[in-house]
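Team,

Forwarding the record for the chain on the shared tracking sheet. I've put the sequence and predicted structure together so nobody has to dig through attachments.
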Amino acid sequence: LRHLKVHPRFISLCLRIAVNKENQIITAYGLTDAYSPQCGLDQGGVECPLLWRIVYDVLLSEIMNAGLGYPMMRREALAEHHKIPFFMPETPDIEVMIACLAFVDDSTWIGRDQECLQGIVDIAMSFFALNAIEINPKKSELLVINSATDDSTIQLGNDTIEALDPATSARMLGVWFSADGKGVHTKQIVKQEVSSICKVLARKAITDKQAIYIVNNVLIPRILYRLTTTILTPHEINKIVGQYSGMIRQKLGFPRGTPNSILHHRRLYGLRHFGDVQEEEQISTALLRLNDHGLVGQVTEARSLAHQAECSLPIPPCQVPEIGARYTKNNLWGHICRLMVQRKVDFSRPDSVNDDNPLMATILPAKTYRRVARQLARDKVVRLSDVINEDGIGIASWVDLRQRLGIKGNARTWYKEICRTICSQSDIRDIDSDNNDSGSSIAYSTESEDNYDDHITNDVHDDGADNNKIVGNDNATHTAVQWSTTDSDTEDEPLEDPRKRRRAALLACQRGDDGGNNPPTSIDICGSEGPEVLATPATEMFNTDDLWNSLLIDVVAADGKDEELQCSNEEERDESTVPE
């Protein structure tokens, strides 16, 4: 204790407790005769946990200094493991080595392979022999994950410990783990506990309030601890909730068809729904672990980094949980992201917001990004600035991007998806054409509320023909995109369906005005002079009565005959005349 620089008063206190000390054991027949302990620590002593940590810290320090243990996957290892160039975050690379977990006399040894684990066990056995500590081999279990050899054994002194079956679980501090990571055994234990407690409560002569209190404060925390590393699906949660809510209905004398909202309402009975409890516990715990500055925070960061590499994301998956929720196989962070999506929650650093140059992961839909994520990683396309032209006003053509990124071949799938998402184009057949060598681009700009006049229009087809332009504009918080199409393209695909015509008219109205002094006041779809669409701001269209005098929509009737629908101030307006 003096070597560890422990306070002298504490040393004196420990000596007074240990000198001339006698113990007695409580049995079913009374106390035994008193005896004097020769060595060791007594169970239940207030000073024993601290003394045990002082003694056991020697062993733990020796194992950590030996460089043995399991290294958490770092950035270089992640890039090699996933076979793609990994996005390097700006934070420094910290190596996290985990070799052992100890709680009082319950120890867990972790190694990256059989040789490493055997070295840890040999050091531990020498320490136990030095301090006269006996180990029970029958209570020792071995879990092997992703073994490359058939020899999965460890020598524990004179005994041989064989690996458990991957589907067999081992208990560590009340939580069950299995090598396959499926958690089937854990779910079975939870079902048995819920069933047994509900059966006991159903037979007891207790009130409904007492039963609800036991469920909320005994049953739910108990199974929540069992499921520390396992997240149930909504179907499994409904089965558990159905069991204890049915028992509560029986106590209340309610019929089986009573709505669950009556039981779960906090101002009525306040029965907690396990689905809500699981989401709150997992999400809040994940946030606390991310903000931890110790070993827990480093391990959490390493696990988040591994999930980030699996998702091919340049940012942590907790910032875009919609994408992280699609990678849930044997991954706790993936399931937590799924819960975050259900709760519409995401975690972001204050310095990670960059609206001027958004990430592709935030632009593309989650389902689309998962399909093209590896292509984006290989081509090193991370942000919007990687695909816009040199002027920064539009998406660069595929010919320019091939030269800039140093890639060959036709247009990638990610390029087509970006054009569809950003430019809202329904047909981009000419994007990957080999004859498109004109270097054309698709305009993309973000305009403020006072900058509606700065429209930029670039033609997709540069064949010298007069192109009819479609101009769209949104408010300050949205993106303004302009594009154009030829007469021939539109004539080949006329809007024969009246519903399509009405929908196109409404969309054109909602895209905004052209920013000029004389905004257009008419909408003509597939008229006699070509497919010209001029859009008026939606607010001006539906707030100005004079505009209805000139709003002319050519609608094809159900019988195939053309009808003209004229709206005016004098006539009584009906909701059926408004394009839907």
